[in-house]
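re: that chain from earlier
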Amino acid sequence: MNNPDTASTPWLTVIIPSFRGERWIDASLRSIAAEPADGIEILLIDGGPTPDTAKIARAYSNRLRLRVFERPDLTSWQSKTNFAVETSQSAHLCWLGVDDLWFPGRATAARRWIESAPAAPLHLAPSAIIDKDGRTLGIWRCPLPSETKLQWPFVTERLLVQNFVGAPAPVFRRDAWLALGGLDEALWYTADWDMWLKLAAHGPVHYHDAVTTALRIHGGSFTMTGSRSVGDFERQMQIVLDRHISGLSGCSKDVERAARASITVNVALAAASGGDLSGLARAASAFFRLGPAGARRYLRDSRIIERVAPRIRAKLGGVF
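^ sequence. v structure.
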């Protein structure tokens, strides 16, 4: 059993924003408690509306360095995350969705990444995709070379085509996050994508091809419910693309074409998940208009098969 040491400065903070997380929080905290958690603080920011999540979490207080904040006034995951970053005590942080998990070896891997490049504003990694029962449906990787210092144009031209980052996997620097203003709380769907792009421009990114976290998809997960407002969903992606494309030169036109095709495909898939298939022909047309080179770029950077196939498996299996 881990015994929390609250006297020393933690080397890592785990941020868990929560709303109605009572079904999942025990499994999430149990996955952290199974690791050597010395020097790791966990901040649970719970928006209610009942005390159930906080009550379950506090049962781990003798095993984890855990602080629970019951904040019904913080109504979005963005505001909860920004509050947690400001409140944190460590130089490095990571997210864990209330329904997501750590795999064995996560703490050791994260510490190794930090020690190998402590000044890096962002460490990226792949994540498994699991269903509501914890079964692995697939692996979501980044189109990046592993264990290499990656400069911002290389990362940005890929990341602009699609947010290929599973939120539980990255480790980021607190000071870089704060210097960049934190999450844009006006972006209800793409705030994390915007943040990864800002951090990538802030300094070299390191990618580690080790799966140490699991992203859970289920009927109540944000990625399944948020995308149903299709018009706003499209605007959210266009805002991020327009905000960051101007920083590129050289291949920016090719990147922008692939990125706008990616938005068209994402909108069509979001609508199709709600039963509206009318956009699929437009999405197919946008893809084929890219030509061979553009299509290769899109397929490489969008990770569309890795993103979509697990959701199809989940729906076919009736796990939603």
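The longest helix spans residues 252-273.
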